Amino acid sequence: MSFSGEVKEELARHISPARHCQIAELAAILHFCGQYGRSGDGRYTIGFQTENKAVIRKSFTLLKKTFNIESGLELSGQEMKKILEKFGNPDEPVSRLLLKNSCCQRAFLRGAFLAAGSMSDPSKSYHLEFDCADEARAKQLKEIMGNFDIESKIILRKKYYVVYLKEGSGIVDLLNVCEAPVSLMNLENLRILKEMRNSVNRRVNCETANIAKTVSAAARQTEEIEYLRDHYGFENLPEPLREMAQIRLEYPLLPLKELGECFSPPIGKSGVNHRLRRLGELAESLRCRS
Fold first, then answer.
1. Could you say which architecture CATH assigns to the domain 3-179?
2. Confidence (pTM)
3. Where in the chain is the domain with CATH 3.10.28.10?
4. Residues of the chain with pLDDT under 70
């Protein structure tokens, strides 16, 4: 099962004890993937457009708990009247009266994810989105997430208005708001592992770059010293530079700090760098004169 599927399974098992929260969650499911009203042949029907059986089970569980409507697609006129009075037009955003409490807004977001949400595998990338049939519903969803300081964005993709999150921290916050602690913990563990791998990779890349830089510099220094040896002669160098040249040729790959420890008495890294730079400048001046 995908990570997105696991989140929905956990959310589907969560039943709020408060009826007003159950109604808010059912309202989200009905408005994002539900259909209710009178059919062409005069029957009152209700249904859900989803392939997720856990979502369907929870939808009918909420119908039973909130309106005492038994599982089934056909309703009585009285039952449909209750639905319409409470939820209004299914093509419009959910009434603000159903979402005035913070707990009901949490339930609404939970129902919205069950009905229209999906997310990528967090071990690969961070992306969570809701597919909304119209802009009004997308804006309502974005606004409610904003009430919990969750910053989302909206884009138009084909015929859907997509509300999405791209940051791992935002997705964690949403799972927390929707009350999915197991999925949240799994995501946090994946985030920690991913950040550790990235940190190790950055350190390895940095060390590799430093090694490459050191090797390149040492090769250039050795080439300059060999040029001085062949075209100028070590005997013509001042004693500090002659000693530096001989030590670098003897230890062509040794870092500057360790090169300094080869002197008696030892000299610092800056001193080694200064002498090597003078040797390089001398070699360059000889090349220019030749």
1. Roll (3.10)
2. 0.70
3. 3-179
4. 71-73, 290
